[in-house]
Amino acid sequence: MELTAVLTPAEEGGFVALNPETGTTTQGETVEEAVANLREATALYLSEFPLPSTGHPVVTVFSIPTPSHA
Q1: Is 56 domain-assigned?
Q2: Domain span at residue 11?
Q3: What does the pLDDT look like over 12-64, one tens digit per residue?
Q4: Which of 35, 38, 56, 59 is deepest in the core (most CB within 10 A)?
Q5: Nearest-CA neighbor of 24 among 47, 3, 41?
């Protein structure tokens, strides 16, 4: 099963990792550690709350204009 991992820098250092399909969130000092922790947390979640197969998620980015200050 392929799932999505969204990683953002944590204020205290390291990374916060989120799986949007399940809402599981964890953290790690490195990207690799954060993803490994997310894999474990998501597997535990899915053992209790299985997800129906809905195909591959689509992830994209978008931009918004930054306000100009006069």
Answers
A1: yes
A2: 1-65
A3: 999 999 999 999 999 999 999 999 999 999 999 999 999 887 777 788 889 99
A4: 38
A5: 41
